[in-house]
């Protein structure tokens, strides 16, 4: 006699050799909509052809911290079908199922309860949420309040992670106080919450997503100008009181496409203000922010980096463009070169398309070879810059791709004050044009046959937007920036000082030479010092190699004194008159108060070499 598999299963269940299977209940849909029916389906493994299915309502039982299963009226005798359709359900409810077979009938376990949720509240039981929004944050404290005709309540939560579902009570993830459940979460969580009363009622259900808030950084201005400060502003998603803000420099980290965020020194202890002012920024730089609140502190995500661009290049990293102009026809090849100051480079570009901003590497829209990025332009306006392996940013450039037939040939880099530059107009397929009209800030500045606009001795007034027109066709406009020239004001004072000192030394030496010419027999030096209306003269004679040191020692009387150190080389015979040997004359001049010693006066000496022309 052959025994069926189902009979063996019944025999084993009867004798207790294996546990009874647990059916799986599914409900569809999970959320009620007006007028829609609900389908319950019960699955038993392994399936049996002779099974009957029983359908239950799951009624909250707070005393047992569980559910009581009440058989549905239409299911008293069980159903052959493994599904059940419920009509007219308008409130949140829980259901369960089980299966049986044989005579006497052997039953499976009850399924875990499944719920059909309604967003509509009812007088017997209702749920309110504070803050009253579906999207909440890890830093928020959430309060769920149950109201209705019962004095006993519990709050339930349903979560589903990787197809695994779980129903849990407030006591396991929050704090229940009377009819209110309070909780906060440090991690992302999406769940359905509802109240269950001691009288067996379900409240309305709510979807709540707890996630880490984001920060959005804005910078103003985006392009640096001389002497201007930069303001960073950090906005937290759904702002609330108590946030503290942290400010970071975004440091390039090739070959990865990400940035390392280094906390700014002044931001170590955070700021209460949601803005931060940076002074003295001169080069292209990236910044980011985030915020934190609470104790222990819960942080937002880092903001996306935002950039402050500088058009001026500097030795550490300099970006050049070939062809060297801002506007290019679409499908033209453009090469950006980062220089040779780093072994690792990446070229980045930001394209504004409506409200979307894309920050991408050259490898996604061009070809990177060494420190050069070559790509074909499409119709858009973008900002490009280089980032080195050592964390440097280059200057930034604006490049526009133009699908029309006429473009303006203008410099991609700023023009220096005092320099000369030339603008021209280019027609697709042609290099030069004549009878071109040029505009500066929408005002016509030239209309003749020269075909180009040449500006000499550029000044700040020449900065602005330029465009050209030819035969009714108008090019896009481009901004021409003017940068200050190299200032010489700082070096003028030292130059004048040195010139003044040299002139003074030469004057003293000429006076000495005149003195020596008058005293042919003896080299002499007469130093005149004015001391409150009286003159003091000092005369010294010389030997074979003579050193003359003249000084006024009357410190009590003199307010200022001039020291002179002279060295003369004469012939051995003082009585013989002939041309002197060539030798230097050193003059040391020091101005200072008389109370200073000669040694102190000699600490900063200025020497001038003079060729003697008389036999002194």
How far the N terminus sits from the C terminus, by CA atoms, comes to 150 Å
Put simply, the count of helices is 4
On the 0-100 scale, what is the average pLDDT? Answer: 78
Rg calculated over all Cα atoms: 46 Å
SS-based structural class? Answer: mainly beta
From the spread of the alpha carbons, the general shape counts as: elongated
Query: Strand share of the residues?
Result: 35-45%
List low-confidence stretches.
Answer: 1-17, 488-495, 519-616
Please summarize the sheet with the most strands. Answer: 5 strands, antiparallel
Instruction: Kindly state the percentage of residues in helix.
Output: under 10%
Strand segment count? 49
Oligomer: single chain
Q: How would the blueprint of this fold be written?
A:
Layout lengths: L4 H11 L8 E5 L9 E6 L8 E10 L4 E6 L11 E4 L6 E9 L4 E2 L6 E3 L8 E6 L4 E3 L4 E7 L4 E9 L2 E6 L5 E3 L2 E4 L5 E9 L4 E10 L3 E6 L9 E7 L7 E9 L6 E5 L11 E4 L6 E9 L4 E2 L6 E3 L11 E3 L4 E3 L3 E5 L7 E9 L2 E6 H4 L1 E3 L2 E5 L4 E8 L4 E10 L3 E4 L5 E2 L4 E7 L8 E5 L2 E6 L3 E4 L8 E7 L2 E2 L3 E3 L1 E2 L5 H30 L10 E3 L2 E3 L8 E6 L9 E10 L20 E4 L4 H4 L15
Parallel strand pairs: 10-17, 27-34, 36-44
Antiparallel strand pairs: 1-2, 2-5, 3-4, 3-6, 6-7, 6-8, 9-11, 11-15, 12-13, 12-16, 14-15, 16-17, 18-19, 19-22, 20-21, 20-23, 23-24, 23-25, 26-28, 28-32, 29-30, 29-33, 31-32, 33-34, 35-37, 37-40, 38-39, 38-41, 41-42, 41-43, 45-46, 47-48, 48-49
